[in-house]
Write a structure and sequence with these properties.
Blueprint: H1 2-38, H2 43-50, E1 56-60, H3 66-79, E2 88-92, H4 95-109, E3 117-120, H5 121-131, E4 143-145, H6 147-160, H7 170-182, H8 196-215, E5 217-219, H9 220-233, H10 235-244, E6 247-250, H11 258-267, E7 274-278, H12 294-301, E8 306-310, H13 318-328, E9 349-354, H14 357-373, E10 381-385, H15 391-400, E11 405-407, H16 417-430, H17 435-441, H18 451-464, H19 468-477, H20 483-503, H21 508-518, H22 521-526, H23 531-548, H24 561-572, E12 585-589, E13 598-603, H25 620-634, E14 637-646, E15 648-651, E16 654-657, H26 662-665, E17 672-675, H27 692-700, E18 711-714, E19 718-726, E20 733-738, E21 741-746, E22 752-755
Parallel strand pairs: 1-7, 1-8, 2-3, 2-6, 4-5, 6-7, 9-14, 9-17, 10-12, 10-13, 11-12, 13-14
Antiparallel strand pairs: 15-16, 18-19, 18-22, 19-20, 20-21
Helix pairs in contact: 1-3, 2-3, 3-4, 5-9, 6-7, 6-8, 7-9, 9-10, 9-11, 13-25, 14-15, 16-17, 16-24, 18-19, 19-20, 21-23
The structure holds adenosine-5'-triphosphate (ATP) and magnesium ion (MG).
Length: 757
């Protein structure tokens, strides 16, 4: 018995020792977890990561570790507070940023993060609606409309309602509907007004809602609004999700819109579990309905919140950071914060005044080649631009130098729909039997050739084994189509014939220009009010540029420039883009670059009219948003930043002269290293040429002290740049671009001083 007892107590001691051991082990592993999560953080970051569950606002400048804090906070909640991954929701702005966030969390957790809801607002709303399609009154397999699908649907609706598209452009309607939805307003919430225009918009909005409902489709704005309404109106679901998401995290909070904010608020009834990070200086989506004021609203509506400011920047060198800090002080109404770094000043910011856009692209690609030559990765370099159309020059030069690159957040130039449309017309002009091209543009822009007519054409082509073009012609001559359809089709065939006739004697650039104008493609894209359509117009202009400067270097001269140009364009589209995991130079717009960082950054096209964009120059609110975009751009750079601008640039085939951007002028000169292209070949005039090639050069170049691209000063007109030199000696004259005017001057008489660059 005693033995038994002893044994028992022994066993108990053993068990408690085991427990103690396990407890210590747990404690040790917990301490290890804690240390590993907070060790790589500074004090302020640590305070944010380890704060008790409450409303938290982390307000801080670029590169101060906001995203890092958010990631570590999630890991902290899981590993230290044992929050279930299921209870975590984290929202950010782009898919790229969401993937990066997921990756960082997984590598810290050493585990999959698939149970968490990490994604963009649209992505998460979509997931939510898929799960609860029934409750949301959507069919199980509802389809999402992208922006162009949405527009097509509006067009169909206008046709049904017999409303002329010219009177009410579909893009304007689309803009109206999306803006209403982004603000949480349904058509039934809008009061009838006497204003005729609003009444028409309203009517179409109503019809559009019904049509979407009937077809079982939702557009992007609808995803957000529907998800919001479902949570608002379905009590059971609301409770379920409020229970489920015990921790809500939002990155880039400054760019949330009304409906996104409202949705988040519904998920957090006690207002004690929302962890948001943002930077008012990086709000760049005002044009799409984002509200910086949400930061103030949060402070009002979450009274128990704690604000933490992060001030140390870990991303950029001293010079880059000083430049960023300086430029943003020109904005008004900032929340105000200062950023500092322990890092050395590093290299100055190089500012390159390119002669033109080709020179600019050459400069950038040369630098990237040198950088890669020094053993760096291509993917550590990025070319950032204001608008998508600017990518073409860089794509071309990168391709010529066999440098893999990747264009983010947009298609490569020659893959873009508007460009393909123009090319399809051009191809058709070269070859009428190009069925794919006819198919693409027969009703683009819309010209009343309906699906029925198209079916007829296809059927006939198939039966007779002829091309669509031949079939279309035959339908006209045999008069088998109803009058209206026949007219529309005839007009198309006639348009192609007319174009062919009229462009015969034009240069390649003029041909492309003519086709873009006379097919009404330019008008079609110009009516739009959306930012995206402005991009499309830019792209069309850029295509004219590409054609204007295109050099046909094929040996067989009997093939037309147009054919060669089209073949090149076809080759440039698609195939050559770097593979997903290949080491590629990164090309993207400034908007897409938000949240990212790169050791080497080129900020290109920094000219007034391009960046800041023309529409924003005279509008204080827009100008400040552009300046924030510039701040975002500068702060992407870690080690080296190059800013470039071109003194002349081709826009729509014409040379235009630009001034360097006011943003550049706002940067402190001591941080800049200004470089100009070498334009002067210094050679003693009397020296005898040694090599024949030099001899040839001398023969070709008239012996003038004036060179194209050279900077010059005139007594009366001030400073200017030489655009052209003609004639020699007494007859020599030069074309100079002064501020706002161009003048031919005889060099023998003009009071000119050259400015050495
Ligand atoms: P943005 O405003 O551009 O989104 P951010 O505030 O989100 O910037 P992060 O991207 O989180 O900044 O961090 C910027 C860089 O600084 C990252 O490379 C990050 O790993 C690094 N970093 C942040 N905090 C620290 C720290 N305490 N120690 C070392 N590196 C850090
Ligand atoms: Mg970030």
């Amino acid at each position: 018995m005693l033995l038994l007892l002893l044994n028992k107590s022994n066993r108990q001691t053993h068990v408690s020792a085991m427990k103690l051991y396990t407890a210590t082990e747990n404690l040790q592993s917990k301490i290890m977890d804690i240390t590993s999560i907070i060790a790589p953080l500074n004090d302020a970051q640590r305070a944010a990561v380890t704060a008790p569950s409450q409303a938290m606002l982390i307000l801080a400048g670029a590169g101060s570790g906001k995203t890092r804090v958010l990631v570590h906070r999630i890991v902290w909640q899981i590993q230290v507070n044992h929050v279930s991954p299921q209870s975590i929701i984290a929202v950010t702005f782009t898919n790229k940023a969401a993937n990066e966030m997921r990756g960082r969390i997984e590598s810290l957790l050493e585990n999959s993060a698939s149970a968490m809801w990490i994604g963009t607002f649209h992505g998460l709303a979509h997931r939510f609606l898929r799960r609860h399609a029934k409750e949301a009154h959507l069919p199980k397999d509802f389809q999402v409309l992208d922006s162009s699908d949405q527009q097509r649907m509006i067009k169909r609706l206008l046709a049904d309602l017999k409303i002329n598209e010219k009177e009410l452009p579909p893009k304007e309607i689309q803009w109206f509907i999306n803006a209403q939805k982004d603000a949480g307003i349904r058509s039934k919430d809008i009061l009838e007004t006497t204003d005729k225009n609003t009444r028409r918009f309203l009517r179409i909005y109503r019809e559009y809602e019904t049509l979407c409902e009937r077809n079982g489709v939702v557009d992007f704005a609808e995803l957000l609004l529907r998800a919001y309404e479902l949570i608002r109106d379905d009590e059971r679901l609301r409770y379920q999700y409020q229970e489920r998401f015990s921790q809500i995290h939002v990155d880039e909070f400054q760019d949330t819109n009304t409906i996104q904010y409202a949705w988040l608020t519904l998920l957090s009834p006690n207002r004690d579990n929302m962890f948001v990070v943002g930077d008012d200086d990086q709000a760049i989506y005002g044009w799409r309905g984002a509200k910086i004021e949400n930061i103030y609203k949060f402070q009002r509506e979450y009274p128990q919140h704690q604000i933490i400011k992060l001030e140390q920047n870990y991303r950029s060198t001293g010079s880059i950071l000083k430049a960023a800090n300086q430029i943003i002080t020109n904005n008004t109404g900032r929340m105000g914060k200062s950023l500092w770094t322990e890092m050395a000043d590093g290299e100055k910011i190089t500012v390159y005044a390119a002669y033109d856009e080709v020179d600019e692209a050459n400069y950038v690609v040369e630098r990237i080649k040198n950088w890669v030559g020094e053993g760096n990765k291509r993917s550590d370099s990025a070319i950032l631009y204001r608008s998508n159309a600017q990518s073409r020059q860089f794509e071309e030069k990168l391709m010529l130098s066999n440098t893999p690159y990747r264009v983010y957040g947009g298609l490569r130039f020659y893959d873009r729909a508007e460009i393909k449309n123009v090319l399809a017309y051009l191809r058709l002009l070269v070859n009428r039997h190009d069925d794919a091209s006819i198919d693409r543009i027969i009703n683009t822009p819309t010209r009343g050739i309906g699906l029925k007519t198209l079916d007829e054409i296809r059927k006939l082509a198939h039966e007779k084994q002829i091309s669509l073009w031949a079939a279309a012609n035959s339908l006209i001559t045999e008069k088998v189509l109803p009058n209206r359809a026949a007219n529309a089709l005839f007009n198309f065939l006639d348009l192609i014939a007319q174009l062919d006739n009229k462009i015969a004697n034009l240069t390649l650039g003029e041909k492309v220009h003519f086709v873009i104008e006379h097919t009404r493609l330019m008008a079609f894209y110009s009516q739009d009010k959306l930012e995206k359509s402005a991009d499309k117009v830019e792209n069309l202009k850029e295509l004219v540029n590409a054609a204007t400067v295109f050099i046909n270097d094929e040996i067989e001269k009997d093939i037309s420039d147009l054919s060669i140009f089209l073949n090149r364009a076809a080759l440039e589209s698609g195939a050559l883009q770097g593979e997903e995991f290949e080491d590629c130079v990164q090309l993207m717009t400034l908007h897409t670059a938000k949240g990212l960082e790169f050791p080497l950054v080129f900020l290109v096209g920094v000219e007034d009219g391009l960046f800041p964009s023309q529409q924003s120059i005279f509008d204080q609110v827009k100008l400040e948003e552009e300046r924030r975009l510039c701040y975002v751009g500068i702060t992407r750079a870690m080690r080296k930043l190059h800013i470039t601008y071109a003194e002349s640039r081709r826009l729509y085939g014409d040379k235009t002269y630009a001034r360097k951007s006011r943003f550049l002028r706002e940067l402190p000169t001591e941080l800049l290293d200004e470089v100009r292209p070498k334009r002067e070949v210094s050679r003693p005039i009397t020296a005898k040429p040694i090599f024949s090639t030099v001899n040839k050069l001398l023969e070709l170049e008239p012996d003038s002290k004036f060179k194209k691209g050279q900077h010059i000063h005139h007594e009366t007109f001030g400073s200017g740049i030489i655009l052209n030199v003609e004639g020699e000696g007494e007859k020599e004259r030069i074309l100079i671009k002064f501020r706002g005017v161009e003048k031919w001057l005889m060099t023998a008489y003009a009071e000119l001083t050259t400015i050495r660059s």
